[in-house]
Amino acid sequence: MKIPSLAGAVLLAAVTAVLPASSGASAAAAADTRIDIDVRAGLATVGATAVGVNHAIWDSQLGTPAVADLLGDAGVTMLRYPGGSYADIYHWRDHTAPGGYVAPDTDFDTFMAGARRTGAEPMIIANYGTGTAQEAADWVRYANVTKGYDATFWTIGNENYGNGHYGSAWEADDHADKSPKQYAAEVVAYSQAMKAVDPTIKIGAVLTMPGNWPDGIVGAGDTGTWNQEVLTRAGSAIDFVDVHWYPGGAGPAETLTRTEQIQDAVYLLRQQINQYAGTGASRIGISMTETNVEVGRNTQPGALFLADVYSGLLAQGVFTVQWWNVHNGLGTVSEVAGETDYGDYGLLSSGNCNADGTVCQPALNTPFAPYHALSLVGDLARAGDRFVGTGSDNALVSAHAVRRANGDLAVLLVNKDPSAAHTVSLNYQGFTPAAGTPTVASFGNGDDRVSTGTGGSASAQTLEPYSVSLVTVRSGRTEQGSPKAPGQPTATVTDRTATISWPAGAAGLKYEVFRQNGGVSEQLGETTGTSLTVGNLQPGRRYTINVLARDGSGRQSQASPPLTFTTGAPATSSCTVKFRDVNDWGNGYVGTIDITNNATVPVTGWTLAFTWPTGWQSVSSGWSATWNQDGRTVRVTSDGALAAGATASVGFVGNYSGPNVLPTVFTLNGTVCASA
User: Fold this and answer.
1) Which stretches are transmembrane (predicted)?
2) The pTM is what?
């Protein structure tokens, strides 16, 4: 969590300014950016709790009608309480937080009244740091038995890895043992006590986002990382994991590139869950309950980041994304892209001033720029709709798309260029747009509200500098009578093949298997059966596929749920490689590679090659051979001989500034090696 500024300030009356809107997106004569939208590339379905924000008990506006209505207008469907790290000092029964400020009229019942007015589900943080399992169970009883609030989602603590176990301590924790082992044991105890009161609730455990501290670090006395220990020991007792993400960045431009890490981070987190959480790990969901930026929190960089991060995470199956937070207070004031930024983590102005009164925020509850981006996301991500694949050939323009239940498309376009407009061509696969001018809602730099109208065309739009636009495109054909989408596919994978299977549908259907590929899916094959073996895959490559059904009249279903798999190394080869991360410190590590010659003859002079899976990984130094990196390709060369059956070991220091997806496939003198 981020600690509030001027948390005890008295908040005043709500005022919301309304001024003329910006012109938004419009038709373009010539496009400089290509956007591809592929409805055959089905991603996650939007859930009922997708769009969330944080409330905090230091905020006297928590639960007020004005705030509840603003959040409801933005499409907020989940509210978190009682507020980040305050949760680990908060005692719900007497509404106290020893050592912290508690504003009047912020108790649990007031929060629930506001949540109901907003139309949002609660996510409640049980006190792990200074509380007990019995206290949490009593809260469940009060909420769901006594009051009938039907509060489903409960997390055990907040950022509990920040309790000093890894050196940094900001989270309250009265346990003598501050290890992930102890946290996991307590999660099990909390879960058992709380579910004994109401077995329908869902329990979440705190993990760390891959690529963020202390990811990768093994603490003193531990057998694994925080995530590994918690999942291994408490996986059977939880229903979801809870992560936070403050991506940092030296400035707005760098910060806005960090959303490129989302797919890899969620992929790694899902891998960790599947590997360590035991039987039934696929049932465990992922929540992102805090995110924000360090530069431009109240201005357009914050808005652009919010639009990208919510959409990107929801498309990858995260069931709720929550901004930190509703109100926070004045921070360091600066100018960002020509606009005053108050350094405030809140979506809405707290209406307060600095100590000498020389700088004051706008009137209380005035929405900051990220609020308006949130309202566009709220309109994009409606419960039951489905994210679909998109691609952009311009790094400064991102796109996210949702298929509505009625067949229409909603396309969110984010122009991260602060100084130039970009014209985009919209290209569709598996979708035919209707004639007519689409509806466009947009928010530009310096605007004080979202402007809505019609503009451009289904195939071309112009995006203002530093803007977010939501384009709604009507479908030009009826979907009535189309086959049902196939069920969840599974796959059996080797190094170069994958046998993909799915549940049978109605009789007489043909099934088509597509690989997602940057907004333009590639068809891998078709069959009238319920499995397909795909060949010619690349070892160590990640693939995401969908299955679609087509009936005898040519009508095509919507896409199956996505399936992501990674091909491995060959089972046997003339060489074997073992790669290990032996000492990780959160943004770098010592790695070792053992290379074994399985041939019957020696190898004299050799080159080991591999490719980093991401662009934020590198070798800073290496030993026992000559190391070179060109782009993402690493080559390790030696003039020495590797005898038949012999093993050579080399080492290096690796750096990473995002999710550290380790390489899995290596070649020795061009031959793909087996993996140890």
Assistant:
1) none
2) 0.95
